Amino acid sequence: MLSQSEMRWGVESRRSEILEKVRLERQVRTEDLAEFFGVSVMTIHRDLDFLAGIGKVEKFRGGARANDCGFGERDVAVRRATNTAIKRALAGEVGTLIRDGDVVALDDSTTVEACLDDVIGAGAAGIITHSLPLMTQISKSAPHIALTGVGGRYVAATDSFLGSATCRAVDKLFASVSVVSTTCITAGAIYHPDEDAAITKASFTKLGERRILVTDSSKFDNVGMHFVAKLKDFDDIIIDSNLTEEQRAMLEASGASLHLVDTTEPEPTHPTPSVLK
């Protein structure tokens, strides 16, 4: 049976946080990690074995250190710099669906982050988000927007707030439109590799009276364990036009309005042990 600490963090969230600690501290001790996360030393050993196996850290007796050959920028920074032109093209389509005076819920994905200017330009009156970068951008560049920042447990790998506390706060809010993205599209639904990210994204999906999924076609190649929402839960799906016949048929079968945007083929964005979207 899982301990309360293991259930609270989730395997992927814990490993993501371990990576962030290694990035910041350069070296971590196994016993310190076990105490911090409230799990056994053996559990931390398994985490470090996994992270070492994919080249993210280098293990030594009693701990692990940064692997400078494979340990680069935080995943969110890498994702922000990937497929930028495609994200801008998709964002333009999102802007056409926002009405003057809408309250818009935006998730913490870098795809949705790229939509901010178009959402503001379309006349949104309020924005709800759990993304720290979006909160910062809105407060500095669009102080006229009624901003609701949703807190909870901060996760450095996503630069956002995730988990049950965040979901409880979202449950008390209302948005006329929600805009979310995804890591994985399969079997008529969207999924995420991390449990806390999945439940938070699900809450943001349900928040909007009108629900928009914006993503690129590379997400059909990814794997995610944790269910977020069915494609039929969305009113609109915005995606690039680089789809196979089977992929397009899956999207059309959802009943959502399908908005295809002509772009170059997106670069693959395969999930890593960190929290991705």
How would you portray this structure in words?
The chain is α/β, with parallel strands linked by helices. The chain has 2 domains: 4-66, Arc Repressor Mutant, subunit A, CATH 1.10.10; 77-261, 3-Layer(aba) Sandwich (Rossmann fold), CATH 3.40.50. It is built from 12 helices and 15 strands. Helix 10 packs parallel to helix 11. The longest helix has 15 residues, at 11-25. The radius of gyration is 19 Å and the shape is globular. The model is unreliable at 69-74 and 272-277 (pLDDT under 50).
SSE layout and pairing:
Elements (H helix, E strand, L loop, with lengths): L3 H6 L1 H15 L1 E3 H8 L3 H13 L3 E4 L2 E4 L8 H6 L3 H12 L7 E4 L3 H4 L2 H6 L4 E4 L2 H10 L4 E4 L3 E3 L4 E3 L1 H7 L4 E6 L3 E3 L2 E4 L2 H13 E7 L11 E5 L5 E5 L4 H9 L3 E5 L16
Parallel strand pairs: 4-5, 4-9, 5-6, 9-12, 12-14, 14-15
Antiparallel strand pairs: 1-3, 2-3, 7-8, 10-11, 11-13
Helix pairs in contact: 3-4, 10-11
The CATH topology label of the largest domain is: Rossmann fold
Biggest β-sheet: strands ordered side by side in the sheet: 6-5-4-9-12-14-15
CATH class category name of the largest domain: Alpha Beta
> How would you classify the helix and strand content by structural class?
alpha/beta
Shape: globular
CATH architecture of the largest domain: 3-Layer(aba) Sandwich
Task: Provide mean pLDDT, rounded.
Answer: 89
Note the beta-strand portion: 15-25%
Q: What level of helicity do the residues show? A: 25-40%
Q: Biggest β-sheet: count, sense, barrel?
A: 7 strands, parallel
Poorly predicted parts: 69-74, 272-277
CA-based gyration radius = 19 Å
Order of helices and strands: HHEHHEEHHEHHEHEEEHEEEHEEEHE
The domain count comes to 2
Number of beta-strand segments? 15
Instruction: State the distance separating the first and last CA atoms.
Output: 29 Å
Counting DSSP H or I runs of 4 or more residues, the number of helices is: 12
